[in-house]
Amino acid sequence: MIDTYLFFGLALLSVLGALGLILFRHPMNGAMSFVVTLISLAGLYALLSAKLIFAIQLIVYAGAIMSLILFIIMFLNIQEEDLPVDTARWFYLAGGIVLLAPVAGLLLKIVESLPGEAEPLTEAGFGGVKQVGLVLFQQWLLPFEIVSILLLVALVGAVVLAGKRG
What angle do CA 12, 13, 19 make, to 5 degrees? Predict the structure, then answer.
Protein backbone atom coordinates (compact mmCIF):
# COMPACT_ATOMS: atom_id res chain seq x y z
CA MET A 1 0.00 0.00 0.00
CA ILE A 2 2.84 2.40 0.80
CA ASP A 3 4.34 1.61 -2.63
CA THR A 4 1.19 2.91 -4.29
CA TYR A 5 1.34 6.19 -2.37
CA LEU A 6 5.05 6.54 -3.11
CA PHE A 7 4.42 5.88 -6.80
CA PHE A 8 1.70 8.50 -7.08
CA GLY A 9 3.72 11.01 -5.05
CA LEU A 10 6.85 10.55 -7.14
CA ALA A 11 4.85 10.59 -10.39
CA LEU A 12 3.14 13.83 -9.37
CA LEU A 13 6.47 15.35 -8.38
CA SER A 14 7.94 14.30 -11.72
CA VAL A 15 5.10 15.88 -13.69
CA LEU A 16 5.24 19.08 -11.63
CA GLY A 17 8.99 19.33 -12.20
CA ALA A 18 8.47 18.88 -15.94
CA LEU A 19 5.79 21.58 -15.92
CA GLY A 20 8.17 23.88 -14.06
CA LEU A 21 10.78 23.23 -16.74
CA ILE A 22 8.31 24.41 -19.37
CA LEU A 23 6.70 27.28 -17.47
CA PHE A 24 9.62 28.99 -15.74
CA ARG A 25 11.10 31.74 -17.82
CA HIS A 26 14.62 31.88 -16.39
CA PRO A 27 16.90 28.96 -17.39
CA MET A 28 18.19 28.46 -13.83
CA ASN A 29 14.67 27.91 -12.49
CA GLY A 30 13.93 25.53 -15.35
CA ALA A 31 17.11 23.60 -14.69
CA MET A 32 16.27 23.25 -11.00
CA SER A 33 12.81 21.96 -11.97
CA PHE A 34 14.52 19.46 -14.23
CA VAL A 35 16.64 18.29 -11.28
CA VAL A 36 13.41 17.65 -9.33
CA THR A 37 12.10 15.61 -12.27
CA LEU A 38 15.30 13.56 -12.52
CA ILE A 39 15.37 12.80 -8.79
CA SER A 40 11.71 11.77 -8.76
CA LEU A 41 12.34 9.49 -11.74
CA ALA A 42 15.18 7.90 -9.79
CA GLY A 43 12.69 7.23 -7.01
CA LEU A 44 10.37 5.54 -9.51
CA TYR A 45 13.26 3.33 -10.64
CA ALA A 46 13.89 2.43 -7.01
CA LEU A 47 10.25 1.37 -6.65
CA LEU A 48 10.80 -0.99 -9.60
CA SER A 49 13.82 -2.51 -7.79
CA ALA A 50 16.06 -1.38 -10.64
CA LYS A 51 19.08 -0.70 -8.46
CA LEU A 52 21.58 0.08 -11.21
CA ILE A 53 19.26 2.36 -13.17
CA PHE A 54 18.37 4.15 -9.91
CA ALA A 55 22.06 4.75 -9.14
CA ILE A 56 22.85 5.84 -12.69
CA GLN A 57 19.90 8.24 -12.70
CA LEU A 58 21.08 9.87 -9.48
CA ILE A 59 24.82 9.91 -10.09
CA VAL A 60 25.04 10.54 -13.83
CA TYR A 61 21.93 12.52 -14.72
CA ALA A 62 20.83 14.31 -11.55
CA GLY A 63 24.42 14.67 -10.40
CA ALA A 64 27.07 15.03 -13.08
CA ILE A 65 25.18 16.19 -16.16
CA MET A 66 22.93 18.60 -14.28
CA SER A 67 25.98 20.02 -12.48
CA LEU A 68 27.55 20.73 -15.87
CA ILE A 69 24.36 22.30 -17.21
CA LEU A 70 23.94 24.45 -14.10
CA PHE A 71 27.59 25.48 -14.33
CA ILE A 72 27.14 26.53 -17.95
CA ILE A 73 23.97 28.50 -17.12
CA MET A 74 25.83 30.30 -14.34
CA PHE A 75 28.82 30.80 -16.65
CA LEU A 76 26.58 32.48 -19.24
CA ASN A 77 25.27 34.83 -16.51
CA ILE A 78 21.86 35.28 -18.12
CA GLN A 79 20.03 38.34 -16.83
CA GLU A 80 16.30 39.02 -17.03
CA GLU A 81 16.82 41.60 -19.80
CA ASP A 82 18.76 39.03 -21.89
CA LEU A 83 15.71 36.77 -22.17
CA PRO A 84 13.50 37.18 -25.23
CA VAL A 85 9.92 38.38 -24.86
CA ASP A 86 7.66 35.39 -25.34
CA THR A 87 4.15 36.66 -25.93
CA ALA A 88 2.82 33.40 -27.42
CA ARG A 89 4.04 31.10 -24.65
CA TRP A 90 0.59 30.39 -23.26
CA PHE A 91 -0.77 29.79 -26.77
CA TYR A 92 1.91 27.17 -27.42
CA LEU A 93 1.28 25.59 -24.02
CA ALA A 94 -2.46 25.30 -24.73
CA GLY A 95 -1.71 23.84 -28.17
CA GLY A 96 0.61 21.28 -26.63
CA ILE A 97 -2.04 20.27 -24.12
CA VAL A 98 -4.60 19.84 -26.89
CA LEU A 99 -2.19 17.71 -28.91
CA LEU A 100 -1.15 15.56 -25.94
CA ALA A 101 -4.66 14.95 -24.58
CA PRO A 102 -5.33 11.96 -26.90
CA VAL A 103 -1.94 10.48 -26.01
CA ALA A 104 -2.77 10.83 -22.31
CA GLY A 105 -6.12 9.11 -22.89
CA LEU A 106 -4.39 6.23 -24.68
CA LEU A 107 -1.86 5.88 -21.86
CA LEU A 108 -4.64 5.78 -19.27
CA LYS A 109 -6.33 2.94 -21.20
CA ILE A 110 -3.03 1.06 -21.32
CA VAL A 111 -2.47 1.52 -17.57
CA GLU A 112 -5.98 0.24 -16.83
CA SER A 113 -5.26 -2.92 -18.84
CA LEU A 114 -2.09 -3.75 -16.87
CA PRO A 115 -2.24 -6.78 -14.61
CA GLY A 116 -2.95 -6.36 -10.90
CA GLU A 117 -0.44 -6.76 -8.11
CA ALA A 118 -0.68 -10.55 -8.26
CA GLU A 119 1.57 -10.72 -11.33
CA PRO A 120 5.04 -9.16 -11.23
CA LEU A 121 5.65 -6.59 -13.95
CA THR A 122 9.39 -7.20 -14.10
CA GLU A 123 11.40 -10.35 -14.49
CA ALA A 124 14.03 -11.58 -12.07
CA GLY A 125 17.28 -9.61 -12.28
CA PHE A 126 15.62 -6.59 -13.90
CA GLY A 127 17.81 -3.52 -13.64
CA GLY A 128 20.91 -5.42 -12.59
CA VAL A 129 24.40 -4.57 -13.79
CA LYS A 130 24.76 -7.61 -16.05
CA GLN A 131 21.35 -7.26 -17.71
CA VAL A 132 21.73 -3.54 -18.38
CA GLY A 133 25.31 -3.93 -19.61
CA LEU A 134 24.39 -6.67 -22.05
CA VAL A 135 21.50 -4.69 -23.53
CA LEU A 136 23.38 -1.39 -23.59
CA PHE A 137 26.60 -2.56 -25.18
CA GLN A 138 25.18 -5.23 -27.50
CA GLN A 139 21.95 -3.74 -28.82
CA TRP A 140 22.27 0.01 -28.09
CA LEU A 141 25.96 0.81 -28.50
CA LEU A 142 25.63 3.16 -31.49
CA PRO A 143 22.76 5.24 -30.02
CA PHE A 144 24.65 5.40 -26.71
CA GLU A 145 27.72 6.83 -28.44
CA ILE A 146 25.66 9.24 -30.54
CA VAL A 147 23.99 10.65 -27.42
CA SER A 148 27.36 11.15 -25.75
CA ILE A 149 28.64 13.05 -28.80
CA LEU A 150 25.49 15.21 -28.86
CA LEU A 151 25.97 16.12 -25.19
CA LEU A 152 29.59 17.03 -25.83
CA VAL A 153 28.67 19.21 -28.82
CA ALA A 154 25.98 21.01 -26.78
CA LEU A 155 28.40 21.75 -23.95
CA VAL A 156 31.13 22.99 -26.31
CA GLY A 157 28.56 25.15 -28.10
CA ALA A 158 27.48 26.75 -24.84
CA VAL A 159 31.08 27.56 -23.94
CA VAL A 160 31.69 29.04 -27.40
CA LEU A 161 28.57 31.21 -27.09
CA ALA A 162 29.67 32.36 -23.66
CA GLY A 163 33.10 33.24 -25.04
CA LYS A 164 31.63 35.39 -27.81
CA ARG A 165 29.47 37.26 -25.32
CA GLY A 166 32.31 38.13 -22.93
Answer: 90
